[in-house]
C-alpha cells in the first residue's frame, strides 16, 4: 500500500470501498478496490483465484488490472482509473438531450467487444449495467466490475449475485433458470436502450409489474429516427427465449447491425476468431495447483496498512507475487479457468442445445408476495418477513419516475421479417451448477 498515495474514496460498493490512488513512482492514477476477505478457507481460495482471473482479462474495452495484494483481511485490487466516470452518470448528465447516433454506436460497439472478450473465455459478467460501464478521459468504453460478483460469496452479495439489478435482469433469471451468456446479452440490450432513449426499457410501478413486463419482453419502442438495423438488433436482444438472442459474436460479425458497429471499432477490439485451445480440465487443475503453491507468497516485511489509519499496528502483508508469470501464462494457455461458481463449461463434443421451458415466474411472484422488499430497485434487499407480511413489494413505487409511454413492443410479436430465430453460433453456455437462489430466499424468509 505504501506504493500508493490515496486521493479520495470514490465510492462504496457492496463488497467494500473504492479509492482513487496515485502510484508514488509513476504518478499514474488508479482505482484501488478493497474487498473484505471471507474467513472460510475454501471461499478465501476462491476469492484469490477469481482475482487472478480478473488479471487475465486484457482488452482495450475492459478496465485493466494493475496488481492485487492482500493487506490485513482485505484483498486489494488495483485497476485502471476511468476518469470519464460511469455510463449511468453520463446518461443522467444528458437530462433530456438525446445522444447522437455516432456516440450510441461507438459506445455500444465497444461494450460488445469487451463483453465478447469475456464470453470468448467462457466467463459470464452477470452484472452488466450502465453503472458498471466506464469511460476513459478520451471517451473509450471500459467494462468494469466484471467478476466482482463472483469474487466474493458473502451472503450480502448472494441475492445480488443471482438477481443483479432488477432493471437489467433477463427473464430466465426471474424464472429461476441458469444464468447464461445470453443473459449478459439481454443486459447489454438494456444499456443500448438507455443510450437510445435515456430511459430503462422495462419500468413499472411495482416489482410484480416489472417482472411481468420483463418476462413478456414488452418495452416502449425505440424512436423511429434510429437506424432500422439497431431497432431490429434490440428486438432480438430482448427475445424472451435466450436461445433466440444473438450472441455477441453474431452481433459483431454477422448481424445486420454489425457493419454499423464495426465501423466504430479498432481492429484489435474485435477478436473474430477464438484463439487458444478449448477447456481442458487437467490443465485447470494444474493451474490451480500452481497458483496455490506459487502465486500467493508470504512476504516477511511488516508494512503499514496506510488506508486504515496511522495509529494501527503494522500488519504483515501477503503480496501476489506478480501473480506468478508462469501461472498467468498457464491461464492464458488454458484459455479458461475452472471455477465452481462462474465458469460454465461444457465439453466441446458434449455440448447440447438446451431449450428452456417457458413458464410464468409464479414461484417468484409468490415469493415476492410473502416477502418485504426494499422499495429501491437499485439494490435488491430482502428483509425477513415481519409485522407487515403482505407484499409491500408488489405495490411499492419503484423510486424511479421515468416510466416509458404506454405503447409497447413485445419481443414475441414480431412480423415475419423480425421472426425469432435461433442464434446459429454454437456459443451458448451457462452456469454449470447454478445456485438455487430462489430456494435460498425461501429458506431465509422461512416461507
Ligand atoms: N475503474 C474505475 N474508474 C473510475 N471509477 C470507478 C472505477 N471502478 C469503480 N468506480 C467508481 O467507484 C464507485 C464504487 O464502485 P464499486 O464498483 O466499488 O461499487 P458500486 O458499483 O457503486 O456498487 P456495486 O459494486 O455494489 O454495484 C462507483 O461510483 C464507480 O463508478
TrEMBL record:
SUPFAM superfamilies in the cross-refs: Protein kinase-like (PK-like)
Domain Protein kinase: 4-258
Pfam families: Pkinase
Keywords: ATP-binding, Kinase, Nucleotide-binding, Serine/threonine-protein kinase, Transferase
Compositionally biased tracts (Acidic residues): 400-415, 423-434
Residue ranges that the Swiss-Prot or TrEMBL entry lists as coiled coil: none
Biased composition (Basic and acidic residues): 305-320, 342-351
Superkingdom as given in the UniProt entry: Eukaryota
Spans annotated as Disordered: 298-320, 333-357, 388-438
Residues at which ATP binds: 33
InterPro entries in the record: Kinase-like_dom_sf (IPR011009), Prot_kinase_dom (IPR000719), Protein_kinase_ATP_BS (IPR017441), Ser-Thr/Tyr_kinase_cat_dom (IPR001245), Ser/Thr_kinase_AS (IPR008271)
GO molecular function: ATP binding; protein serine/threonine kinase activity
Family stated for the protein in its record: Belongs to the protein kinase superfamily. NEK Ser/Thr protein kinase family. NIMA subfamily.
Name assigned to this protein: Serine/threonine-protein kinase Nek3-like
